[in-house]
Amino acid sequence: MEQKHNVTLDPPIQNLHGSMYFDGKIYGCTDGGNETYASIVEIDVKNNFSVKYLVNNWFGHPFAGFNDLFVDKNSNIW
Question: What's this model's pTM, rounded to 2 decimal places?
Fold first, then answer.
């Protein structure tokens, strides 16, 4: 029998995809939605799945959306 686990993110994330696990955290990109902009987020799985928005605009201009990302060994996000 398959077990299902519900996770509540704080704050919630809209349209998350293009995610990867790195150094105890999940990094993901979103298209935004429900009054949020497209963003790159960090989800701390060891701290009640708390969410930190890393970037959601460029000099005040909102992003249209992201499709994928990669975190290298030096913690740079591409």
Answer: 0.78
Distance between CA atoms of 38 and 24, rounded to whole angstroms? 23
User: What total of structural domains would you count in the chain?
Assistant: 1
Q: What are phi and psi of 10, to 5 degrees?
A: -130, 105
Q: Could you tell me the residue range of the domain that residue 13 belongs to?
A: 8-78
Does residue 3 form part of some domain? Answer: no
Collect all residues with Cβ–Cβ distance below 8 Å to 63 and sequence separation of at least 6. Answer: 32, 37, 38, 39, 55, 56, 57
Between CA 71 and CA 68 the distance in angstroms is 11
Going from the first residue of the chain to its last (78 residues), give the mean pLDDT of each consecutive group of 10, the final group possibly shorter: 76 84 90 84 88 91 83 86
